[in-house]
Amino acid sequence: AQTVTQSQPEMSVQEAETVTLSCTYDTSENNYYLFWYKQPPSRQMILVIRQEAYKQQNATENRFSVNFQKAAKSFSLKISDSQLGDTAMYFCAFTSQGGSEKLVFGKGMKLTVNP
Amino acid sequence: NAGVMQNPRHLVRRRGQEARLRCSPMKGHSHVYWYRQLPEEGLKFMVYLQKENIIDESGMPKERFSAEFPKEGPSILRIQQVVRGDSAAYFCASSRDRGQNTEAFFGQGTRLTVV
Q1: Is the minimum CB–CB distance between B102 and chain A shorter than 8 Å?
Q2: pLDDT digits (tens, 9 = 90+) for A49-76
Q3: Closest residue of A to B90, CA-based?
Q4: A86 phi and psi angles, rounded to 5 deg
Q5: Residue A33 has what DSSP assignment?
Q6: Chain B residues lying within 8 Å of A102, measured CB to CB
Q7: Do B100 and A98 touch (CB under 8 A)?
């Protein structure tokens, strides 16, 4: 069975600083997809970034980037120049299906950005 | 272009009653996924439906839970004879296709409280 582990339940960071959220996963699949989702207080699940396992290059979306270490089964999210609006729960997710079916989520991590 | 619409946002039911949760996918999307989020937990996959078909219901409890996605109208997640343990946030997501490069968009969820 695939599992996703987020070992840090909570973090805080000062505005404009950089923060890294960690995630590890376990799978026997060779081809899969990894995601980071953001859930602000509104509860809306918002896709932040995705990574295909067959791509060696780390995904980047503006201030968000990942460090994907396939051998170590590690998928961390780096948020640069943190903003107050980044305050939210962050969930790491995995799927071995085609793209977005049957996502397996970690328990989440609460990030607070302080002014 | 409206996003995934879920209603109601909040639903209170007494033990033994039925709960019906509705999900209208984004325009042009024919794939719907239901997830459940228990307090302090990540989302857990329940069921994946395509128009008029259940594709994967491996995450659905064996009893009391059912889902449908008719040719016309929203997808419905139905919970019969609710119990306190059914209290959770239920999220629906939709996608245009399945497979690579497909993104699932989430609704804002329905928070079910069983009293």
Answers
A1: yes
A2: 999 888 889 999 999 999 999 999 999 9
A3: A43
A4: -80, -10
A5: E
A6: 33, 45, 48, 56, 58-59
A7: yes
Among B4, B100, B110, B112, the strongest candidate for a mutation testing the A interface, having the largest count of A CBs within 10 A, is B100
Structure tokens at B36: 């459940």
Per-residue pLDDT tens over the stretch B57-108: 999 999 999 999 999 999 999 999 999 999 999 999 998 877 656 778 899 9
**Cβ of residue B110 closer than 8 Å to a chain A Cβ:** no
Q: What are phi and psi of B3, to 5 degrees?
A: -80, -165
pLDDT value of residue A100? 55
For B30, the token pair is 């024919």
The answer to whether the beta carbons of residues A89 and A110 sit under 8 Å apart is yes
**From start to end of B1-87, where are the E strands?**
5-7, 10-13, 19-24, 31-37, 43-50, 53-56, 65-68, 75-79
Dist CA A45 CA A39 (whole Å)? 5
**Residues 6 or more apart from A51 whose CB is under 8 A from it?**
A33, A34, A35, A58, A59, A66, A68, A75
